[in-house]
Write a structure and sequence with these properties.
Number of strands of chain A: 0
Mean pLDDT of chain B: 89
Largest sheet of chain A: none
Number of helices of chain B: 22
Structural class of chain A: mainly alpha
CATH superfamily of one domain in chain B: P-loop containing nucleotide triphosphate hydrolases
Largest interface: A-B, 23 and 35 residues
Number of helices of chain A: 13
Mean pLDDT of chain A: 86
Shape of chain B: globular
Helix content of chain A: over 70%
Oligomer: heterodimer
Strand content of chain B: 15-25%
Strand order of the largest sheet of chain B: 6-7-8-3-9-10-12-11
Radius of gyration of chain A: 24 Å
Low-confidence stretches of chain B: 679-689
Order of helices and strands of chain A: HHHHHHHHHHHHH
CATH class of one domain in chain B: Alpha Beta
Structural class of chain B: alpha/beta
Number of domains of chain A: 2
CATH topology of one domain in chain B: Rossmann fold
CATH architecture of one domain in chain B: 3-Layer(aba) Sandwich
Largest sheet of chain B: 8 strands, mixed
Number of strands of chain B: 26
Helix content of chain B: 25-40%
CATH topology of the largest domain in chain A: MetI-like fold
Distance between the termini of chain A: 9 Å
CATH class of the largest domain in chain A: Mainly Alpha
Strand content of chain A: under 5%
CATH superfamily of the largest domain in chain A: MetI-like
Shape of chain A: globular
Radius of gyration of chain B: 26 Å
CATH architecture of the largest domain in chain A: Orthogonal Bundle
């Protein structure tokens, strides 16, 4: 099992290496480049040459890439052009907040999505099924910024139960404060993904319920809760974990709108700011970190897959 | 027959099941009475839509919520039609155990065999969780699974098909139920494995004294297993009685027709007598006797059309639901027509064969690892030689995975031969380019097994048949729509059906469309890959007769690929038997079936259930041990030696050559080839009495 995880990770090294080339080369694909960005339009050729030398841009491309790569591997992603702070520490401030929000939103999505899916799959075509399908459509259809604002109006402005602006409070410092801060953004994102979760799980549950092994399980006299809760659920989980993994990966860096509504200090907003100010080292760093997490989540999904389905061997 | 005196284990009275949906209720079962006693096997025979499976689901209370049940089902003192969910649940696995058709899908892939064997008994509170493993090992031992302690923690995909079905039987018997319902328990299995599973089922039934309901479409299985038989048609039992009487003196025209439509291992060469039309759909039953539109006895009499016949006595313990049961002919009586096979022009073997396959090999690479390196070869076809002459049918038989389909596909150029030669009409076609091969395929066409999957659902039947003409740019040249209409007539379909879509046709009609499509380009050779395997018995005979008529009219050559030895015997001139990618025996049909010399052919033939209960216990049966090995790692020497009852030390060391057998028109690949009589020294074979 451990060996399998290590092998899967080793298989991803070439992917990561290839991606790093892309990320690094991005700087050169855009007209102007970092020099023009820093010096502005009225720079003299001498100033440009001096800065290029300072940034190391006058060296051969391979050498530059190698230097960037070795630095990145050593944990040095350069310095932000804008704030002059190390990129690693800028990302380091935001990453825990982003991970915390992503996990919380996933938990909310599962808490809503799984019961909805199970209830509607057990009674396909019933009024409950139709009502719950309506819920899924609504959850997917409502824009997150609008839902976020509604939640702020209700819980922060009207009821005054929760803060309207959500800061990052680490769980281990104050669980209650953390919950108060994260509840609204997590609800906003969680309700959205619960629609996706419910749809996917319902579809695979309905398909599995028709399988022959369900009839066999019933013919043994198993109670219905075991038939559904164990036999059917375990099989239906296979396609479902893929979707949950994809959505979790999506929460890393992909929640800009929600972060903006709640002024939440996440990685998404950092990346957007970096892009709008053409802060190349910061863009590179953010994308690299997002990519690494994405890949890690995928390995986790693969491991879960092999755990759920014995036909997939740890090989 | 002392069991008959005692209280029956199961008693069904006036059972009616209808499915309600948006339209009017669809009657699936219409008034079924039956009882089963301890120590008794009741066989229920019927074609698709006869209501046999719905009856079994009603008995176990497993019908979907859309079913409406009337009548009475009494099992062990409980009235099932009135029981609540919890009572039914407590009954399942305790009073009744079930064995279903396909062991690959009836087991849950994500749980161990051991857990699935015992979870029912644990849920019933009849087994403690800490004793489950010991009990599961015991259950596997009872169904002869080797190394039960190691197997119990394995998952279904680590079991072979036959072992899975053994496990399912063990599961059904885990709670010592008084009644076992086995619904087509061997239909998905190969014939040698079927023989193992049937003898296991018979042994466990005798050991436990359980009552068994055996549901099947296979009259051979019924003849070997059942004590009493109920024949179902159109949702009712049309005949029931002791198995010997049902086969010797059937008293319902449908039973007679079924027996007559069956190609048999022990039958003559007479033309099959199919039942005209098709089994009725439950939603669309004919009025009066449901069988009258297809009946040879009814002769359009008003009583058959207007009045549904009740079951009445037709002999001791023998019931028939026919107004004219006395007129029903014996199954062996002379038939309506002269019955004999119309004279076929003799096959001329002196000329060059139309198709010659020499030492054909198809090896697929097995790849593994990150870089997908080749780690071995799967020898799907490993040295097959055969010839097919004009107007001749060569049968290619074997169990699943023996390479018969791959052989057919390699001849068509659909998979690439990795070795050997293929000659067609005097030309080497082994390594032709795409364009040249397309020209060859004009004369060589393929008919697929599954008529449901092999027709494009969004094209009309006419378009499907016309497609080969269009691909070859010959549509107008060969007569356009007139040609298509002629093709429809040739396969017995009305040209007025050309505009219909595949879903509007029955299974047999779809296969006719598939044959018409194959005939469109006037080919000389048809490769027929299990063309009747998915059809009902009565429809099977129609298609076989059609193929024989077409061959006679068009001088077609057939390469007939099938697993069913009876069908192959009926249609073929010569037969080749395949095992693990090789032909082990090849001969004229008569010689091969009368005097097989290869032990595999002998076992295969002895394993086929014959629809004649009087042969039960008389006919010697060789039950092969084990199952077909993995073709990726075949045994050394003769690949059959681990299962062979004649194997010697030489067999495991040296692969036998494919040589003529003296005195017979036979070639065989066996170091110890020879007829079965005198009896083989009983080293391995399990003789089943």
């Amino acid at each position: 099992m451990i060996g399998y995880i290590l092998r899967r990770l080793a298989q991803l090294l070439p992917v990561l290496l290839l991606a790093s080339v892309g990320i690094w080369a991005m700087v050169y694909a855009i007209p102007g480049g970092p020099v023009g960005m820093i010096l502005g339009e009225n720079a003299t050729p001498e100033q440009i040459a001096a800065l290029r030398a300072e940034l190391g841009l006058d060296r051969p491309v391979i050498v530059q890439y190698w230097a960037w790569l070795t630095n990145a591997l050593a944990g040095d992603l350069g310095v932000s052009l804008h704030s002059r702070q190390p990129v690693v520490s800028l990302i380091g401030e935001r990453l825990p907040a982003t991970i915390q929000l992503g996990l919380a939103a996933t938990v909310v999505g599962l808490l809503i999505g799984i019961p909805v899916a199970v209830a509607s799959a057990l009674m396909p075509g019933s009024w409950l099924d139709r009502a719950l399908s309506g819920w899924s459509a609504l959850a997917l259809g409502v824009p997150t910024f609008w839902l976020g604002i509604l939640l702020i109006l209700l819980f922060a402005v009207h009821l005054r139960w929760l803060p309207s602006a959500s800061g990052y409070v680490p769980f281990w410092e104050s669980p209650i404060e953390m919950l108060r801060n994260i509840l609204l953004p997590a609800l906003t994102l969680g309700i959205y993904v619960s629609g996706i979760f419910a749809r996917f799980l319902r579809a695979s549950l309905v398909a599995e319920l028709r399988a022959d092994y369900v009839r066999t399980a019933r013919s043994k006299g198993l109670p219905e809760r075991d038939v559904v809760g164990r036999h059917v659920m375990r099989n239906a989980m296979l396609p479902f974990v893929t979707i949950v993994g994809l959505m979790m990966a999506n929460f890393i860096g992909g929640t800009v709108v929600t972060e903006a509504v709640f002024t939440y200090p996440g990685l998404g907003r950092l990346l957007i700011t970096a892009i709008s100010t053409r802060d190349y080292p910061l863009i590179q760093g953010c994308i690299l970190v997002i990519l690494v997490i994405y890949i890690l989540i995928n390995v986790m999904v693969d491991v879960l897959y092999a755990y759920i389905d014995p036909r997939i061997e740890y090989a | 027959m002392s069991a008959r005196m005692a209280e029956p284990v199961l008693s069904v009275r006036a059972l009616e099941v209808a499915f309600v949906g948006s339209g009017r209720p669809v009657p699936a079962v219409r008034g079924v009475d039956l009882e089963v006693h301890a120590n008794e096997v009741l066989g229920i025979v019927g074609e698709s839509g006869s209501g046999k499976s719905v009856t079994s689901l009603a008995i176990s209370g497993l019908l979907p919520p859309t079913a409406r049940v009337r009548g009475s089902i009494r099992l062990g003192g409980v009235e099932i039609t009135e029981a609540d969910h919890e009572t039914l649940r407590r009954m399942r696995g305790v009073d009744v155990g079930m064995v279903f058709q396909d062991p690959t899908t009836t087991l849950n892939p994500v749980f161990t065999i051991g857990r699935q064997l015992t979870e029912g008994q644990i849920a019933h509170g009849r087994l403690r969780a800490d004793a489950a493993r010991t009990r599961a090992i015991e259950l596997l031992r009872e169904v002869d699974i080797p190394d039960p302690a190691g197997r119990v923690i394995q998952y279904p995909h680590q079991f072979s098909g036959g072992m899975r079905q053994r496990a399912v039987i063990a599961m059904a018997m885990a709670g010592h139920p008084r009644l076992i319902i086995a619904d087509e328990p061997t239909t998905a299995l190969d014939v040698t494995v079927q023989a193992q599973v049937l003898s296991l089922l018979a042994r466990r039934q005798a050991e436990t004294g359980a009552a068994v309901i055996l549901i099947t479409h296979d009259l051979g299985v019924i003849a070997e297993m059942a004590h009493r038989v109920a024949v179902m048609y159109g949702g009712r039992i049309v005949e029931s009685g002791p198995v010997e009487q049902i086969f010797a003196r059937p008293r319902h025209p449908y039973t007679v027709a079924l027996l007559r439509s069956l190609p048999r291992l022990d039958g003559g060469a007479a033309r099959l007598e199919p039942i005209p039309g098709q089994p009725p759909a439950p939603a669309n039953l004919p009025p009066g006797c449901a069988f009258h539109p297809r009946c040879a006895v009814a002769r359009d009499r008003a009583r058959c059309r207007g009045e549904e016949p009740a079951l009445r006595a037709a002999g001791p313990a023998h019931l028939s639901a026919c107004h004219f049961a006395e007129e029903v002919p014996a199954p062996s009586a002379p038939r309506a027509g002269d019955g004999a096979e119309p004279v076929r022009p003799a096959v001329r073997r002196d000329s060059e064969p139309l198709l010659t396959v020499e030492n054909l090999q198809v090896h697929f690479p097995i790849k593994a690892g990150i870089l997908r390196r080749r780690v071995g070869w799967l020898r799907a076809v490993d040295g097959v030689s055969l010839t097919v002459h004009e107007g001749e049918t060569v049968g290619l038989v074997g169990e699943s995975g023996c390479g018969k389909t791959t052989t057919g596909r390699a001849v068509m150029g659909l998979v690439k031969a990795t070795g050997g030669r293929i000659r067609f009409a005097g030309r080497d076609i082994t390594s032709l380019g795409r364009g040249a091969m397309r020209q060859v395929r004009r004369h060589m066409q393929y008919v697929f097994q599954d008529p449901f999957a092999s027709l494009n659902p969004i094209k009309s039947a006419g378009e499907i048949v016309a497609e080969p003409l269009r691909i070859h740019g010959l549509y107008d040249e060969m007569g356009g729509v007139g040609r298509i209409a002629r093709l429809f007539e040739m396969v017995g379909l009305s040209p007025s059906m050309m505009g219909r879509f595949p879903h509007e046709f029955s299974g047999g009609q779809k296969q006719r469309i598939g044959i018409a499509r194959a005939l469109a380009l006037e080919p000389r050779l048809l490769i027929l890959d299990e063309p009747v395997a998915s059809l009902d018995v009565s429809i099977q005979a129609q298609i076989i007769n059609l193929l024989q008529d077409l061959q006679r009219e068009l001088r077609l050559a057939y390469l007939f690929i099938a697993h069913d030895l009876s069908v192959v015997r009926h249609i073929s001139d010569r037969v080749a038997v395949m095992y693990l990618g090789r032909i082990v025996e090849e001969s004229e049909k008569q010689a091969l079936y009368a005097t097989p010399v290869h032990p595999y052919t002998q076992s295969l033939l002895s394993a086929v259930p014959v629809p004649d209960p009087t042969l039960r216990g008389v006919r010697r049966r060789i039950v092969l041990e084990g199952e077909i090995p993995n073709p990726a790692s075949p045994p050394a020497g003769c690949t059959f030696h681990p299962r062979c009852f004649r194997a010697s030390a030489r067999c495991s060391a040296e692969a036998p050559a494919f040589l003529p057998y003296p005195g017979l028109p036979t070639r065989a690949a066996c170091h110890h080839a020879g007829p079965l009589v005198p009896a083989p020294d009983a080293k391995h074979p399990q003789e089943v009495a």
